[in-house]
């Protein structure tokens, strides 16, 4: 449900900039790329069934033999990608409420933009998402269930209604991009990447599925295919019913406009559904972002003060810091799409390192148990995906202004936050833990539980039959930990 929510946030901006058919093509191609990447991540998830953290952990496992700090980069980048979605949704809520009910609210000048009621409402929304999570997971789960039903109802109305009323939908309202700049299209791939790639989050829950290998693969496959359908149907119905010019004029309220057009009124209801949908996204992303910071602290990748849970069993300190960072981002950037551009850099860096991690794990750990093993044809596919992502990241972070809403500020902020995260990693390792930073960490070729410890092995040519050994006192030798009967049972690859 969070992934279609990302589509509702970006549909107006994308269609207004490059046309309806081009936007739909970008979303669908991105969903197909996500499907291929999810096929790779299903294999890596099954390799490490007890490892939480999703794709950033697979990147860590693949890269630690070559340059271990890249694991911290992937982990922080992944956190930034999901966490900053809180600020994106909060900023959108602030703009929607102001435009719908307080269009003449005053604002004050601020470096780069103006701040006023939209930013204040955004901060209040962030505080609400924080509160829903801080006081226990049960409250957040209850809010999410109720909101999800409302969002599904709104999506259904927007998609179905235009086709039930003859003459209300026209294909002629969708156009192709005629700007002539291929780099602009790449930048829009970069902007929409979190939305189209986001189904990989299923890998984060791999240890919690009943059958890690089977259920993780199923979740990754089905969610990406469902998203592919949503990315085609929702913008097709929306643009065909309201037109590109309307979306261009009000990109944040595109869904509310389509909802109003579908029902012939009820504009307030459409805005309320959109606001509730975005708040639902904030609750989910707050839960993910806070727990990601908590997990980083537990793994020794950020300051240990975040490795705490409150009386309700949730990482309260991490949730609070996450909310404060997002509130600061809203004040600094203001525009939802600008925040999304800033957050996508870290997310795509993590995604690129994870795809490369698949290739490195195939090379370095050929004997590692793989309950899911993709055919060799997937190796060149992984190389193509890797090159594709590198191009998207390189062009997107250096040319964000081609999207019309980004610039040097967004790029510097994206890179700067990632670098600050690495500094915190170094501070934790060197200052708080008193350890040296390990630049390279050797990895075993097979899991510990599938191989016999070296200290328990005895060379075959010197091994004596147990019954012929005697102690120095002349009696039978005592049973030792090195004996065959004392050796632990070795779990087979199949088990």
Automatic annotation (TrEMBL):
Cellular component, GO, one term: plasma membrane
Q: Where is the composition biased (Basic and acidic residues)?
A: 443-470
Q: Where in the cell is it found?
A: Cell membrane
| Entries under InterPro entries matching the protein | AA/rel_permease1 (IPR002293), APC_superfamily (IPR050367)
Could you tell me which residues belong to the region Disordered?
Answer: 443-495
Residue ranges, compositional bias (Polar residues) = 480-495
Gene3D superfamilies reported in the protein's UniProt record: Amino acid/polyamine transporter I
- Provide the transmembrane region boundaries: 7-33, 39-59, 79-103, 115-135, 147-165, 185-207, 219-238, 269-294, 314-333, 339-361, 377-397, 403-427
Alphabetical UniProt keywords:
Cell membrane, Membrane, Transmembrane, Transmembrane helix
Stretches of the chain forming a coiled coil according to its record: none
Name the Gene Ontology molecular function terms of this record. Answer: transmembrane transporter activity
Origin: domain of life: Bacteria
Q: What is the membrane topology noted in the UniProt record heading this document? A: Multi-pass membrane protein
RNA-binding keyword on record: no
Under what name is this protein listed? APC family permease
**The species this protein was found in:** Streptomyces antnestii
